[in-house]
Design brief:
With 73 residues, the protein is mainly β. The protein is 0% helix and 47% strand. The structure holds zinc ion.
Length: 73
């Protein structure tokens, strides 16, 4: 069995002059580790790791002006 944890990575773009941001890109991440593994979840296709914070599906946010991140603690 593989790990059932997933995450959705939203790459956002700040809207000039407003406090809100819009999602530009949505990437679904699926953990590729065995069920019950230790440590961060890891999507080998996208090379991204994340901590679940107790959520089976976590939403991760990244601003498009940031350098690409591979780990979301
Ligand atoms: Zn996992």
């Amino acid at each position: 069995m593989s790990c059932p944890y997933r995450a959705v990575l939203l790459v956002t773009r700040d809207m000039r002059g407003t406090a809100s941001s819009v999602a530009k890109l949505r990437i679904e991440l699926h953990c590729g580790e065995p069920e019950g593994h230790l440590g961060a979840h890891h999507d080998p296709r996208h090379g991204i790791q994340w901590d679940d914070h107790g959520k089976t599906v976590r939403t991760l946010l990244r601003d498009e002006s940031e350098p690409a991140r591979s780990h979301f603690p």
